[in-house]
Automatic annotation (TrEMBL):
This is LysR substrate-binding domain-containing protein. The keyword Transcription regulation applies. It comes from Actinomadura gamaensis. Belongs to the LysR transcriptional regulatory family. Keywords: DNA-binding, Transcription, Transcription regulation. The keyword ATP-binding does not apply. Gene3D superfamilies: Periplasmic binding protein-like II, Winged helix-like DNA-binding domain superfamily/Winged helix DNA-binding domain. Residues 1-58 form the HTH lysR-type domain.
Length: 287
């Protein structure tokens, strides 16, 4: 049960095909098939089945791949911890952040950290809330920058930074705002701000028209263009508010307090601690 075999199975699950897994791992298709077959023989259970001209995981494969992710994540975390213990300023650091944080909170911190510790091997994964917390749960990320972590996650909140969600619109839309009739421009399902907007509307028993756009930038641009109002982090619209392209709408019960959290697994690596200490030295972050 080697690391390369586990990686082949995970890559197959992620890519959905042997060809895609081989491309991701820079190996031949036969190498992927041989690795997965060897795992199946060792476990004495079928991990994949043929479907049309391709393959897909069996129910047993779906179960096992979640454990494989955790094993691979722990191996990566162990390597990071060992290298960081030897010299934290040269260890790896795997960050993950939700889109808004990646766009407006992380860049400054990364630049300061890179300037102070240029030999740290930095990687940053960006995605919706569910993805970044799954990365932390599977030990595939050392530190997540996002909203509040989900309950039940084995993790440590190491730092917090204030963040408020506000409803914004173009001046013309704001002047005619109605909670029940003005359209709301929203992120896709799985976004933290989308969930917050839906919860807000449900709490106020409002059912306005909804327009779903695929990114935070598109939501902000759509609101500025007059498509409707949007619930967004104030961090994401500072320039638009200052320029007057957007204005804050005085909707009831707003702004919403949704702090940013810097969250690590139960045993943060020394290099992770270096990054968190830099955050705590910056304005706005507290332990």
């Amino acid at each position: 049960m080697t690391e390369s075999r586990l990686r082949a199975l995970v890559a197959l699950a992620d890519a959905g095909s042997v060809r895609g897994a081989a491309r991701e791992l820079y190996v031949t298709e036969s190498a992927v098939s041989a690795s997965v077959a060897a795992l199946a023989r060792e476990l004495d259970v079928a991990l994949v089945r043929r479907e049309g001209r391709g393959v897909r995981l069996t129910p047993a494969g779906d179960v096992y791949v979640s454990y494989a992710r955790q094993v691979l994540g722990l191996l990566e975390q162990g390597r990071a911890a060992a290298r960081g213990a030897a010299d934290p300023a040269r260890g790896p650091l795997r960050l993950a952040a939700v889109t808004t944080a990646a766009d407006h909170v992380v860049p400054g911190a990364l630049a300061a950290f890179r300037s102070r510790f240029p030999e740290v091997e930095l990687t940053l994964s960006v995605g919706p809330r569910r993805m970044v917390w799954e990365l932390l749960a599977s030990r595939s990320a050392d530190l997540v920058l996002a909203g509040r972590p989900p309950s039940g996650l084995d993790a440590l909140v190491l730092a917090r930074r204030p963040n408020s969600l506000v409803v914004v619109a173009s001046p013309a839309v704001a002047d005619a705002f109605s909670l029940d009739t003005t359209p709301w421009v929203m992120r896709e399902l799985g976004s933290g701000t989308r969930d917050a907007a839906e919860e807000y509307l449900a709490e106020h028993r409002a059912a306005p028209p909804r327009l779903v756009l695929g990114s935070n930038g598109a939501v902000v641009a759509g609101a500025a263009a007059g498509l409707g109002v949007a619930l967004v982090s104030r961090d994401a619209v500072g320039a638009e508010l200052a320029a007057g392209r957007l204005v804050a709408v005085p909707a009831p019960g707003l702004p919403l307090d949704r702090p940013w959290h810097a969250v690590a697994g139960p045993a943060p690596t020394p290099t992770t601690r270096l990054f968190v200490n830099l955050l705590l030295d910056a304005a706005g972050w507290t332990a």
